[in-house]
Amino acid sequence: DARVTQTPRDKVTEMGQEVTMRCQPILGHNTVFWYRQTMMQGLELLAYFRNRAPLDDSGMPKDRFSAEMPDATLATLKIQPSEPRDSAVYFCASGFNRYTQYFGPGTRLTVL
Amino acid sequence: AQTVTQSQPEMSVQEAETVTLSCTYDTSESNYYLFWYKQPPSRQMILVIRQEAYKQQNATENRFSVNFQKAAKSFSLKISDSQLGDTAMYFCAFMFSQGGSEKLVFGKGTKLTVNP
Known about the structure:
The complex is a heterodimer of chains A (112) and B (116).
Chain A: E1 5-7, E2 10-13, E3 19-24, E4 31-38, E5 42-50, E6 53-56, E7 65-71, E8 74-79, E9 88-97, E10 100-103, E11 107-111
Chain B: E1 3-5, E2 10-14, E3 19-21, E4 24-26, E5 33-39, E6 46-52, E7 60-61, E8 64-69, E9 74-79, E10 88-98, E11 101-106, E12 110-115
Parallel strand pairs in B: 2-12
Antiparallel strand pairs in B: 1-4, 3-9, 5-6, 5-10, 7-8, 8-9, 10-11, 10-12
């Protein structure tokens, strides 16, 4: 049963620290999405990759956030420096076509 | 702007009964896709059902079905024979293409509780 995996599951850090979240998409999927979920804003799209190339990162704060796909089996989302307002659950999703996305279990980030 | 509205923040239903969750959306696009996702307390987002806007026939997946009214921009989810495991947050989502990429917009969610 193929699944999207994300690490870490939970992360607590202090303001100013660098945070890196990792995602392993389902083998064979060529699209990867990063979402952020908060109580206030709900689910927001941060970035979107197709065939490892970034297609859209307009939802991502550029000054502190960066997203990359070093290879087809790994996507990363980095925050540097982290701030308390970044506290949220971050989801990665992958798909093999534009109309289907399979979500990972998410990383719950708490920035103190 | 593309928006998705779920007007019912919370709902409850008795086990084995039927419940309908509402969703409306606003778009000027003609080709798009609609989804319902379930998020149980484990926080995993699970795709429940998908509807292509160009299809008139309502999608069905076992106990889950949708009532898609394109002119009214309405996309409700019906859960039949509710089970305790259906307790979760349910999110309606809308996907469209823009500038060569796809965007998925979510509603704020409906918290469904199935009571024994």
